[in-house]
Structure prediction request, 572 residues.
Amino acid sequence: MAARAVGFGLPLAVLTAWVLARTRFPGRSLLSVLVHLPLALPPVVTGWLLLITFGIRGPIGSVLHDWFDVRLVFTTAGASLACAVMTFPVMVRAVRLSLEAADPALEQAARTLGAGRLDRLCNVTLPLASPGILVGGIVGYATCLGEFGAVITFAANIPGQTQTLPLAIYAALQVPGGEATAAKLSLVSITLALIGLLLSEWIGKRLNAALGR
Amino acid sequence: MSLTIRLRHRFPSIQLDIAFEVPAPGVTALFGPSGAGKSTTIAVAAGLLRPDACRVEIDGQVLADTAAGVWLPPERRRVGLVFQDARLFPHMSVATNLRFGLRRAAPGPIRFDEVVELLGIGALLERRPHTLSGGERQRVAIGRALLAQPRLLLMDEPLVNLDDARKAEILPYLTRLKTALRLPVIYVTHALDEVSRLADSLVLLEAGRVTGSGTVSEVAARTDLPLARRDDAGALLLCRVVAHDVGRELTRLEGGGATFWVPLLDAPLQAECRIRIPAREVILAGKPPDAISVHNIVPGTVRRVAAEGARRSVLVEIALPSGTLLGRVTPDAITRLALSPGAPVLALIKSTSIEVLGA
Prediction:
């Protein structure tokens, strides 16, 4: 579920970050605010917004349901969507910072060497921003595993389908004698978070060394 | 075959109005103080800056003509650019950097092995840019630009960030490139020694205007142009090695229709070289002196006498059969020798005062 959220979210995050970092257009600030909104909103509100938009009677949800027979609410795919939306700002931020650090002078150099727009993006800009993109993906993945509010609101708490770690821990705590399960799950959660952060730190260092920074 | 650049552009602080036409191939130096419009001219030629109005044409091919609505983007111009700061791609090896433009260009005459050999970068191919010295980085950047098979190469003060030792390391490579690859080059600089060594033509820029242009020998010796106002003003002559006198440890050069003796050179006969004769090293005489150590007593005619106010000196343009010498003397010397335009004069130049460049 988290993998799916990052898999779909990250490319979109790179695109959004590129638009925010490298282009100037009238609605740019608005886009930036929209992207970062889930960071500032209570996750339950985000979940509720998803519910009314992607619910079977919502404007997008009804189209998906009636035309493509796809239902998102209370499904694993829905949990992925909720996670993706919640982690999107985190990923955009990481990618945008590294895109802004990637020197536009190098893109100019690539231009004079005959590289067109897409060519420059794929062979110069993105490789230069790769540390940020990877770190964004890993941190995004870790955040997904810990998502609570938006998922429970939009996709509910169905074990094996939409249950994230904190949801499972929360459920365990509701049951008498569930403390042992909760402790075990918490330990898993801590381990995953540590692995994620250490991995991103290590990869970031390796990539930056390769770029001579 | 020629290269034409015309541009007009208004910046908040300065209005640029620059136009020149120079022969191609050949190295044209854009010379002038910072803020004169040199780098802007380069950016316009490369297509990185679109000015209010411009026309860039090389051998009849129009790269930009705002009046006709023609504006080729940089990636389709085939104009190479070597930046001050090299701008190598940090995530690629030297070899991959070198091939970046080559892979994107149509097949052309400039070969990978030839460039690597000319620039002496064969040992660096596997290295990463951040492990290179400043001079090595700049050589790789030059190679990368050349391998993109440009029809015009622009160099924006390529040596400005290097110390004198690194500069001295690169200059011979540039001289070699110049003779090996017949390519039009625009070379931006504010260093006179780079102009003296490399340039065939010279365009002087000041405050957004062209103040003078022509062959480098012509422009250097014009007392009405800013180069001659410098402390290190001097004449530049293109010469050929005519004879070596190994016994006397002297080499005889011919250039500007005159003969010059210089300390023995390690260069083959008929080799071309440039000499620079600083104006303050030139002694003027009315008749030949005897018993004197000076080897070069060059007859010429006074063309122009220009007083240099604050310096309490006078700059004399001396016409040779096909060139010009500059001499800087005191106003008193002018009076004593009765020097005025048209007067015959002898220029006395010590062999050791002649700077031989790129023999």
In short: The radius of gyration of chain A is 20 Å. Chain A has a mean pLDDT of 81. The first helix of chain A runs from residue 2 to 22.
